[in-house]
Design goal:
The protein is of the alpha/beta class. The protein folds into two domains: 4-159, Fructose-1,6-Bisphosphatase, subunit A, domain 1 (Fructose-1,6-Bisphosphatase, Chain A, domain 1, 2-Layer Sandwich); 170-241, D-Maltodextrin-Binding Protein, domain 2 (3-Layer(aba) Sandwich). It is built from nine helices and eleven strands. It has helices at 4-27, 45-61, 93-98, 142-146, 153-156, 179-184, 186-192, 204-212, 227-241, and strands at residues 32-34, 42-44, 66-69, 83-91, 104-111, 114-122, 127-132, 137-141, 174-176, 197-199, 218-219. The strands form three sheets. It has a six-stranded mixed β-sheet with strand order 3-4-5-6-7-8, with helices on both faces. It has a three-stranded parallel β-sheet with strand order 10-9-11, covered by helices on one side. A two-stranded antiparallel ribbon has the order 1-2. The longest helix has 24 residues, at 4-27. Pfam families: Inositol_P.
Length: 245
């Protein structure tokens, strides 16, 4: 598989960060601060520690690449780099604080503006999604995830996933949306009512990869997104580009 070094570093980094997040998640031993005076953007010690682990692993392995993370002061020199790592060290912080297990760590490597590597990890569910441009999309869960380091390239190929075929009609389709958005927006409520089923997940990255694996057919969101949210869409695009229909 191409990009083996990038995968090795990125996957090792998210697994290490995931262990730390789970300790915070179980013990609740973190402080919460807010980026906004309105209390809309919480950040915890877990966010910061996860970011430190990811940056340490990735930047030390690829010192010439750019770095862009929600929890790192932006260095505009990244705009001069051909390759940039775009990171959300804890996507779904509000869910994390509430004790909801639907949070993720998400990473994308973009080269000349094109996503070439994507990794999304949900630590509580032990779900690791990863893909590289032109080499397929993969999902490891539970025991297979724990045995990942012992698998050879041929065995890894057995875990490639393919997006399910689209439903024949809107009435058969499954859509992912935010429960809060639906409750607050009558137009969105009417829209999702036209679909066969509405499902809910918290992290935007988790929602997106859920579409990639066929758990749902589409995602709708009306809330504004930051750059570190949009990079999750990069990864989803990468995952879907690597799936055969």
């Amino acid at each position: 598989m191409n990009r083996c070094r990038e995968f090795e570093v990125a996957i090792s980094a998210v697994l290490e960060a995931g262990e730390v997040l789970m300790r915070y998640f179980k013990n609740k031993n973190y402080h919460i601060t807010y980026k906004s005076k309105f209390g809309k953007s919480p950040v915890t010690d877990a966010d910061i520690k996860s970011n430190e682990i990811l940056k340490k692993n990735i930047v030390s392995a690829f010192p010439d690449d750019g770095w862009f993370s929600e929890e790192t002061a932006d260095d505009m020199l990244r705009l001069e780099k051909r390759r940039v790592w775009i990171v959300d060290p804890l996507d779904g912080t509000k869910s994390f604080i509430r004790g909801v297990s639907e949070f993720t760590i998400s990473i994308a490597l973009v080269e000349d503006g094109i996503p070439i590597v994507g990794v999304v990890y949900n630590p509580p569910g032990e779900e690791l999604y990863f893909a590289s441009r032109g080499n397929g999309a993969y999902l490891f869960k539970g025991d297979t995830l724990r045995g990942l380091k012992n698998l050879n390239v041929e065995e890894i190929k057995d875990y490639r996933f393919y997006a399910s075929k689209s439903k024949k009609s809107v009435k058969e389709a499954v859509i992912i949306a935010s429960r809060g958005e639906i409750e607050k927006n009558e137009t969105l409520k009417n829209l999702v009512g036209k679909f066969g089923e509405v499902r809910f997940r918290k992290s935007i990255a988790y929602k997106i990869v859920s579409v990639a694996i066929g758990w749902a057919d589409a995602l709708v969101s009306l809330s504004s997104k930051n750059e570190w949210d949009i990079e999750s869409i990069f990864k989803s695009t990468l995952l879907l580009q690597n799936c055969r229909y």
